[in-house]
Structure formats: structure tokens, C-alpha cells
Design a protein that fits this description.
Layout (H helix, E strand, L loop, with lengths): L2 E9 L2 E10 L4 E6 L8 H11 L3 E11 L7 E3 L1 H18 L7 H6 L4 E3 L9 H67 L6 H15 L2 H19 L5 H22 L2 H20 L5
Parallel strand pairs: 3-4
Antiparallel strand pairs: 1-2, 2-4, 5-6
Helix pairs in contact: 1-4, 4-5, 4-6, 4-8, 6-7, 7-8
Length: 287
């Protein structure tokens, strides 16, 4: 499910902004981009996100709107400075260049003078947590609104499947009666006036009726549809559960279609399979 949330607040005398984005994904896949000062709270932030978000590709980006206060300490890398001076002198000698290596030149080079990380106090999770919580709650609110719209759409698909099941239930007895009449006529035509063993015919009719009976499939279909309704009405993540139920619904619909031997039921089954395909496609967007 997609969503976005952001919040900002004061941390270490500076101002920190946290943005959280999520897009559809079958699994939970977090990616955090934090300034080095927040390295000590990354574990706690990951754990909090894992508790609240079960699916989706989640990107967390934190940045300083106002830099945190430092104590002014600067780290000097003397080894790096000596290497630079020696390299510059060697370059001057071999290329016969003019000029001297001075302090300004050395100080401008990367990694010679850097703000000392110890100049910033350690960031505590208690300072970052309220900001992260506001951002993730905003994201959850957006996901909840999307989820409600998606649940309504899935509910309409389930309604279409329930209507199809009702149509098949009404047609099934008529189809069975017609199939029995067809079988008796076929036997009579083949017998061509010869006496038919009525007991044997009754057994064949019973076997045929059992082969084409779809009562059990319709009962299971209704049960799975009710389970889908219950899952959509519940709190928490239901995407995986509905994915499993969608597979079971398709299994029952396919079995009904294979047993139907009736054009009316076959047309209804085709329409139901179309609704099921749309239902299952939407599940990738649902947590």
C-alpha cells in the first residue's frame, strides 16, 4: 500500500525532519537514509517500523533542517596532511613548477580538517521517537484511507461472486433434471425397443448424478466468500489470508465449471473467474 508521512522537531539543539514513504510490495522491505548522528538510533527506528508496517517497500529519509549544535571541536589528520605536502613537493620537483605549499593549500584538502564527531552529543531514541511516530502515523492514516477504498472495491468483487453462486444454485437442479432426461432418452434410443434393466439404469443415473453434483463445491465456495468478508471487516493485515482464500475460491469455481456440462452455468463460471482475477490483482496492494 502506498503512503507518505513527514514530521519535524528539535533534536540536539538543531531541527530534524523525517519523511517516510511506502509503496506496494509483497513483503516488508525497509530502506533508511539517516545522517551519521542518528546511527545510534537506527536499530530502534527499524524495530518500530517493523511493528507498524507488515508489507510494502518503505523508505525513511531523515535530514537536518537546522544543524545540531557542536562544541567546536575539529579533528586534524596529520598523516593525511604530511602525505599531501610530500606529494605536492614531489609534483613541483618533477614538473618544475613554481610556488610554495602553504597552510591554506593544505587546509583546503579533503579529510585534513573535519568537524569532530565527538563534538555532538549522542542522539537518544527518546528525542527522535516522537518525530518518527508522528511521521509514521501520518503515513498509516493515508494507508488506512487507501485501504478502506480498496476494501470497498474487493467487497464489490465478492458481491459479484456471491451473485454468480446464487445463479448457479438456481440453475443446478434444472440442469440435473435435464441431464437425467437426456440420459434416459439416449438409453431408450440405443435400446431400440429392447427391454432395459431398470435397476441397472437407476444405478447409472445415480452415478451420473453424483459425478455432476456441485452441492459440495457451492457450499465450500460460500464458506470461502464468508471468510473473505470476515477478513475485510477485521483489523490488521489480511493480504496474505485473502491471497490464500482467493486461490481456494478459484479452485471451487474451476471444479464447478468442469462439472457443469451446461451453457448457462459455464457462462456464469467464466464471469466469476474474471471477477476473481480482478480480486486477486488488487491483493498485491493490500497489507
Amino acid at each position: 500500500m502506498t503512503g507518505f508521512g513527514s514530521a519535524e522537531g528539535n533534536v540536539l539543539g538543531g531541527r530534524l525532519s523525517i519523511e517516510i514513504r511506502s509503496v506496494n510490495h509483497r513483503y516488508y522491505n525497509p530502506q533508511l537514509k539517516l545522517p551519521f548522528e542518528l546511527g545510534g538510533v537506527e536499530g530502534a527506528l527499524r524495530e518500530r517500523l517493523r511493528q507498524l508496517l507488515e508489507r510494502g517497500h518503505v523508505t525513511v529519509s531523515a535530514r537536518w533542517i537546522e544543524a545540531p549544535q557542536r562544541d567546536g571541536a575539529v579533528a586534524v589528520d596529520l598523516t593525511r596532511a604530511r602525505q599531501l605536502v610530500a606529494a605536492a613537493k614531489q609534483l613541483k620537483k618533477h614538473l618544475k613548477l613554481k610556488g610554495d605549499v602553504d597552510l591554506a593549500f593544505v587546509a583546503r584538502q579533503p579529510e585534513v580538517l573535519t568537524p569532530h564527531q565527538d563534538g555532538i552529543a549522542a542522539v537518544q531514541w527518546s528525542e527522535v521517537e516522537p518525530i518518527a511516530e508522528r511521521a509514521v502515523q501520518e503515513l498509516l492514516g493515508m494507508r488506512a484511507r487507501e485501504g478502506a477504498a480498496l476494501a470497498a472495491e474487493l467487497g464489490r468483487r465478492l458481491g459479484a461472486l456471491e451473485t454468480g453462486a446464487g445463479t448457479i444454485e438456481q440453475r443446478a437442479p434444472e440442469r440435473l433434471t435435464a441431464e437425467l432426461a437426456r440420459l434416459k432418452k439416449a438409453v431408450a434410443d440405443l435400446a431400440a425397443g429392447v427391454q432395459v434393466d431398470e435397476q441397472r439404469l437407476a444405478v447409472e443415473v445415480a452415478l451420473m448424478a453424483d459425478r455432476v453434483d456441485i452441492t459440495e463445491e457451492l457450499v465450500r465456495l460460500r464458506t470461502h466468500l464468508a471468510a473473505c468478508r470476515a477478513a475485510l471487516a477485521s483489523d490488521g493485515a489480511v493480504g496474505k489470508q485473502l491471497g490464500f482464500l482467493g486461490q481456494e475460491l478459484l479452485r471451487e469455481v474451476n471444479t464447478i465449471g468442469s462439472k457443469a456440462n451446461d451453457s448457462g452455468i459455464t457462462h456464469t463460471v467464466i464471469a466469476m473467474k474474471g471477477e476473481l482475477e480482478k480480486f486477486r490483482e488488487q491483493l498485491d496492494n493490500l497489507e
